[in-house]
Specification:
The structure holds 2 protein chains of 2 kinds.
Chain A lengths: L2 H15 L5 H4 L2 H16 L14 H9 L5 H8 L3 H7 L2 H4 L3 E5 L2 E4 H26 L2 H11 L3 H30 L9 H28 L16 H19 L2 H13 L1
Antiparallel strand pairs in A: 1-2
Helix pairs in contact in A: 1-8, 3-8, 3-12, 4-8, 9-10
Chain B lengths: L9 H25 L4 H16 L3 E2 L6 E2 L4 H8 L1 H19 L6 H26 L5 H30 L6 H33 L1 H13 L3 H18 L11 H11 L9 H13 L28 H33 L1
Antiparallel strand pairs in B: 1-2
Classes of the chains: A mainly alpha, B mainly alpha.
Chain lengths: 270, 346
Amino acid sequence: MSQIETAFFEIGSLDTLATRDSFIHRLDPRAKLLTTLAFIFCVVSFDKYQFSSLLPLVIFPASQLVVGRLPVNFLWKKLLFLAPFVVLIGIFNPFFDRQILFHIGPFGVSGGWMSFASILLRSALTISAALILIATTSFSGVCLALEKIGAPRVFVLQLLFLYRYLFVLGNEGTRLVRARTLRSFNRQGTGMAVFAQLAGQLLLRTLDRAQRIHLAMRCRAFSGEIHLLRSFNFGRREFLFMICWCSTFLLIRAGNFPQLLGKVLLEFTR
Amino acid sequence: MHLADALLSPAVGATMWAATAGTISHCSRQVKRDLDDSKVPLMGVLAAFVFAIQMINFSIPATGSSGHLGGGMLLAILLGPYAAFLSIASVLTVQALFFADGGLLALGCNIFNLGVFPCFIAYPLIYQKIVGESSSEKRLFFGALLSCVVALQLGAFGVVLETVASGISDLPFNSFVLLMQPIHLAIGCVEGVVTAAVVLLLWRARPEFIQDSHIENSQNRRSGKKVLVGLLVATLVTAGGLSWFASPKPDGLEWAISRISKNGAVAGSRPEIYSLLSAFHFKSAILPDYHFSPAEDAGSTKDGAETWPAVDAGTTVSGLVGGVMTLGMSTLIGFFLKRRHSAGTA
């Protein structure tokens, strides 16, 4: 499958996951969006050398996977290709920061390796949080949550329109790419000139399509104002969900539970 | 080029989100006011077009690698700055949510880097200057090419600044800049050529589309705004880059005082309150002496020798932060004075 087909397949599969039913899926999207943002903020607020104190935060994505009855597969693939840019930048840390922080047996662990490990863990946590948000709340849910929180209406409408026509243009793009692949050999036909022609053709078709859409909307009495049907309400469950998770994040941020646990275990084995 | 959450600190992330949110509201208000409602579906469909186009790769002749079109500049040329910014922001939001391409906190930074620079700097200052209202093929080509190159350079520099200011990565400013800028120069050239080719294709097939967007967007320009944007860019460049070339030698006052104190004129013990206050002053300063405070500056080599130009991220950040704050305060003061004046005369 070409890259474009894979991409749209992923979008479709994530959106299908959002149609499942579970406690998490039934929550108001605002609660889920705000809790995820609080989680990400908590993750990035740790110091660069912290690794073990970040580990308890795994409980948030893990519990959502369990309660939301989500398959773990969709996360693993993304985490394996852990944001190449992050790894590329993070791998320089061990080179620049060689100050030894502590020793494990005969080996000294430098600050650079600690911060690199921390970067990888942060990356895993934030990526999981974002993907689980979409898998439990559909894209339209997130857009409605944004609108309720106060994002400008024009921007929310833009997001909804984009999502609506994403699949249409994805189909067209896939057909174009397949046609190009069938007509190209070795590296002939996949260059910039052909691409520019391809893009130009798609653009012309897109402009025509936009005109047809606008006419269709006018035929159906569109007067410039779009109405959204909102069927969610923010109740006691959502409030409790947010309060419980935010206090958990604060607790984990304030203390260093793995260290505490390690000390307690060492005391017992002494 | 998308920044990720793992490399950001909360302060930088929150600041950039504030800037992006402000720009989104401003653009939404402009779009609501200016655009007619046939543009509403156009914005959405063009954003979907850019999203689809980003997934299609092409091979680059000299190297063996493949590239893809970013599309930010193309949207700016087709839709004008405000609508294009919203479209780019929506594409990046979808990418962040579905592909975790750049995290949710980094979304603010990414929208700023990939949206503000093409739409509000490269488009008005380069593309519109070169093309004007004439729209000859040569001008379209060079306008698109140059504005793409500049937009990508600025975007890459934005990424460098945000990463270094966060302090999670140990990569020093100089190496990072040397790593990012040349690569993005090459990427910018390729993207510029492809964007220009697409624009030319559109110009030959549907000239009225490009003409209309040129006329519409040149009508929205007001000379006061141009001057302001020009000054802002000059401030950013001077504070961010030219400040490295400042002379390290003492200025007139410092030289005079150093002469006087050498001759022993300033004598006597200072009351304890002076040292307490100066220690508090130094500690509470976010950027003491226009540098990052010593504890944070883990990556730089301080060998004591004064180098010139003193390339230092701390100086750049101090210059930029100071410049923006000064601009903000003077704007606020002018705003309040204007309101008082109009209230007084009313």
